[in-house]
Amino acid sequence: MTIVTAPAPTPVVPTRRSGLSDDLKQLLAVLLATAVALGLGLALRASTENQTRVHETQGVRASIPASWVVQRGAGSLLFTATDPQQQDRRYSVSRIVPVGPEAQTPAEAAENQAAARSRLLTGFRVLERTAAQVNGKSGLRMRYVFVDDQGPLPEVRQGIDLFAPGTSGILVYSLVTPAERFEDALPSFDRFVSSVTE
């Protein structure tokens, strides 16, 4: 009888992998893909938010963010623009045309505007009137507050009007927003005003 013996098994020595494990590689790949997707999303959002369109009414043009809603006005109000993400902020441009042969000054226009608003708006009060440069022209700045009692609860609103001579009357650039968010709205109002041309 012949005895067949199996060769002695060679010991299996665990080999040490050099580099990263497969699980760690997959985790890093997922994190990298997520970071790239977020970066592209933020870039797209910034690109979309920075797009503007030109709106024109009666020779007055404004460069308005593409996502904003613009409504044509009536009478002296040319148009109103609203950011859908900040619907409680209202930006507008009006033109006050002199009734008689004499041109109206920005100070006279502000006085008349304040008198009209005090009859229409609850608790209307002028906070300040100061001289101001408006798109390179000498004008007047008027800040005011009033109570908006049209909603379910009364709300204190603050506004600013900038009065400046235009080609056919006084242009009035306005912002109205809840009083507690007034200061936050000023940078976008400044951009709005600087985009208006006649």
Characterize the structure shown.
β1 and β2 form a beta hairpin. It is built from three helices and nine strands, in the order αβββββαββββα. It is α+β, with helices and mostly antiparallel strands. The strands form two sheets. Strands 3-4-5-9-8-7-6 form a seven-stranded antiparallel beta sheet, sandwiched between helices. Strands 1-2 form a two-stranded antiparallel sheet. Helices cover 29% and strands 41% of the residues.
Task: Produce a short descriptive summary.
With 198 residues, the chain is of the alpha+beta class. Helix content is 29%, strand content 41%. The chain has helices at 22-49, 106-120, 182-195, and strands spanning 52-57, 60-65, 69-72, 77-83, 86-96, 122-134, 137-148, 155-166, 169-178.
Topology:
Layout: H1 22-49, E1 52-57, E2 60-65, E3 69-72, E4 77-83, E5 86-96, H2 106-120, E6 122-134, E7 137-148, E8 155-166, E9 169-178, H3 182-195
